[in-house]
Amino acid sequence: MQLNTLMILLCLLFLLFQSSSDKFFQTKAAETYQLQTLTGYKGNGQDVDRTFTAKHAFLKAPCGICSGNNDEIFVSDCVRGLIFKIFPNESMIVFGGLGLGFNQDGYDVKQTLFNSPSSLSVAINGDLWIADTNNDKIRLVSAETNLVSSLPFAFNKPLGVYVSNNNILYIADSGNNVIKKYDIGSKILTTIAGGNGYLDGSYDNVEANSIILRSPKNIHVVSNGKDDTVYFTDDERVKSIDKNGKYRRIAISELETKL
């Protein structure tokens, strides 16, 4: 009987300690971290051609996001075909898009139709690059004129773009299963991974062009001022291409230190 009573008391003490510790850690977490929603409230949708608070933005399917050169943030909505611009004070405008579709180049960005603008990246001169996925286009919004143009190359459902500090545009051309490199200065496009590959993705430290890719998507580039290392997602893995064109798979622990 005494043993049972002792066990009950120990259990009660454990539960009391657990409850107190949970509250303690929850309190500390609340003191340390704050979660803030910038966008996503479903308003009345009347957000074109006006400035509004970012919290009141109607984002139906946010997909692309990148930072600008003046602490602003660009966010795209793939379903509505719109691109939003969020300022440091959290005010927001519709930067571009007139709905889903394609109406050729040469229009102001606000008069341009996009069809799933799934990835965004801002170059060092302020130009905005867009993977216009369902139009099979890589679009450019000029920082000087706000006019839209497209690269004169064939793409197939591109899902990722990233401009490095070395003014090189990298493209995840998902439908063609390749990673491409576009030198903005010389206007030369080359394939740096995938394409006519013959090795599956389990090989490391081999030429990236020899690897078979399976719908590469997200892309990120780390520059050291001279060379670029390209990171991308493909076939449920994170992979990389180094400055020498060598391919390898990346461990999560390595990503934590490099990205």
Automatic annotation (TrEMBL):
<keyword id="KW-0732">Signal</keyword>
<feature type="repeat" description="NHL">
    <location>
        <begin position="155"/>
        <end position="185"/>
    </location>
</feature>
<dbReference type="Pfam" id="PF01436">
    <property type="entry name" value="NHL"/>
</dbReference>
<dbReference type="InterPro" id="IPR011042">
    <property type="entry name" value="6-blade_b-propeller_TolB-like"/>
</dbReference>
<dbReference type="InterPro" id="IPR001258">
    <property type="entry name" value="NHL_repeat"/>
</dbReference>
<protein>
    <submittedName>
        <fullName>Predicted protein</fullName>
    </submittedName>
</protein>
<keyword id="KW-0677">Repeat</keyword>
<feature type="signal peptide">
    <location>
        <begin position="1"/>
        <end position="21"/>
    </location>
</feature>
